[in-house]
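Wed. Picked up where I left off yesterday with Glutamine--tRNA ligase. The coffee machine is broken again, so keeping this brief.
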Amino acid sequence: MEEKEVVSKNFIEQIIDKDLEEGHTHTVATRFPPEPNGYLHIGHAKSILLNYGLARKYHGHFNLRFDDTNPTKEKTEFVESIIRDVEWLGAKYDGEVRFASNYFQEMYEAAIKLIKKGKAYVCDLSAEQIREYRGTLKEPGKESPYRNRSIEENLELFEGMKNGEFPDGSKVLRAKIDMASPNMNMRDPVLYRVARMSHHNTGDAWCIYPMYDFAHPIEDAIEGISHSICTLEFEDHRPLYDWVVRELEYPEPPKQIEFAKMYLTNVVTGKRYIKRLVDEGIVDGWDDPRLVTIAALRRRGFTPESIRNFMELVGVSKGNSSVDYAMLEYCIREDLKMKRPRVMAILDPVKLIIDNYPEDQIEYMDVMNNQEKEEMGVRQVPFGRELYIEREDFMEEPPKKYFRLYPGNEVRLMNAYFVKCVDYKKDEDGNITEIHCTYDPETRSGSGFTGRKVKGTIHWVAAPTAVKATVRLYENLVDEEKGVYNEDGSLNLNPNSLRVLENCYLEPSLAEARPGESFQFVRNGYFCVDEKDSTPERLVFNRIVSLKSSYKPGK
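Structure written out below (tokens, as returned):
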């Protein structure tokens, strides 16, 4: 008898399986419901891919819906950036993009229904008084003096709120639940407030706006969402979510399920902090490659596949935990190493001159595009008398076990010849300006040479045909040793988070590199053409990740 493979399911899938078996759910429908008040970050990617993945696994529906009930912070710019992020990650939503604001009329009618049922009332207490009346975790709250207004009076006052008859903040609509509830969210929460604000989607059509905890379950119910997947901070809000859909008598109410947020070590994800970094010009926008917004990761050169693989490794749990940023870097290395060509680029150049090589000669070396994937083919790289090599590949007085270039030593120029250092020149400050070598024409790579061996191989770029470029090297934006935040809440910024190298030289195959295209620079890491600042006249490359990893899979 053939054994079936046992597939381990996360706790959300186990809940959905049970709901389907017991008939509570017939079609699985999920949604990603961001508020358009900033750019999405890596934590949102987990929610996007989780919700989309569940809908796809159960052959259901996945909606993209903006929870745009707070027009003070919401912008069309953020709406557009979020749509781009979701689509870039490969999460295909059903139908059109949805907006909570499209349901404002239904929400208003739902509030009327609650008033008529005696489950909601108009309250004149100020926001500060409402907080005072709310009580504490140890003491019950006090009932508002307006709690027992008649249904007729509440209907009249609520209509007056909608018609703009009252000043902002003067009245709110509250649910009538239980001021002694041990759950603070159930102590007559505010459902609607008066606020004369222009909305990005509805303009000035409304001067009252619903609160998130009231709007969200209604949106889910209207759209037929079966499982409302959210993060753990909404766990205490679940009783209110259930109260709203129950009191409004939706025939197939959605079920809220909470999972743990993903915390990455030593990165800034809070929108408030990112906004401050942007506003103060510390970073050059929400897509600065030092950030972990999805837009920033895309600009830096991360791929949707790498982020999806990262989320698979992280998994889904009920308990909060931190994930090492090195795991994310591991995923992008694994994704790129078999896909992208390996090219030669010199980031800190010093000139190497081969004294016995013909002055005007240029020859072409056959170089594999990726040594681990032969089907990626071969390109031809020009070689000549004058080259650039990395400054660190030459030392006047090398330590032991230094196998690169130094006076009297012989190394292989990658994919080319053996060269031997015979001299070097320095400027008045003691910096090396030229390295002089001789070459052995019998040692050309691929010629079948089987003579003497050398221990060192260094890469190079031919000076006459080199493409000049700017390269940006990144470190963590925050000081890792001190942590992300100071005691006063300010950020521990790393002064070396960005290093710009203006005079880098690349092999000529990169001259036509397109924005967003990525490569492995031999020995230097993976790099991507910056899609924002790069031009055909001046290429700008961002380092995606170095070649070395501190993350070991399986540990």
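Quick read: Residues 162 and 206 are 7 Å apart (CA to CA).
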